[in-house]
Specification:
The protein has a domain of 78 residues: hypothetical protein PF0899 fold (2-Layer Sandwich), CATH 3.30.2320. The chain is 27% helix and 32% strand. The chain contains 2 helices and 6 strands. The strands form 2 sheets. The protein has a 3-stranded mixed sheet with strand order 2-1-6, covered by helices on one side. It has a 3-stranded antiparallel sheet with strand order 4-3-5, with no helix packed on it.
Length: 113
């Protein structure tokens, strides 16, 4: 379960940011997570609750905005969503695809008191 390691990294980043701002409480953390990261939101939320216990992030809401896989065709210059991991341009059938979304994992923002 890689969610535990991710949860710990999120907590570390959030605690560091909150400390720099002199915050006494972290109330919400908003994430952006690409589909290809293979994150199970329920598991990540559970793991975050465990690692955040007894910190200023205890009880913080973890919001996860999942980003679908998307691509760009180098041959016909079209942008599209990739469904069921089929890396073929739906417009021209080319396999010269560059991923443009679905691999991200970042903290969008942190709400503090």
């Amino acid at each position: 379960m890689h969610e535990m390691g991710i949860a710990q990294n999120i907590l570390d980043i959030a605690l560091n940011a909150a400390d720099k701002e002199g915050a006494s409480k972290i109330t919400r953390i908003n994430l952006v997570a690409g589909e290809l990261r293979g994150i199970v939101p329920l598991q990540l939320t559970f793991c975050f609750g465990l690692v955040a216990k007894d910190t200023i992030a205890s009880g913080a809401y973890l919001s996860i905005d999942e980003v679908p896989v998307s691509g760009h065709c180098s041959d016909c210059n079209s942008d599209f969503s990739i469904k069921e991991y089929e890396y073929v341009c739906p417009k021209c059938g080319s396999t010269k695809i560059q991923l443009t979304g679905g691999t991200e994992l970042s903290i969008k923002d942190i709400e503090i008191e």
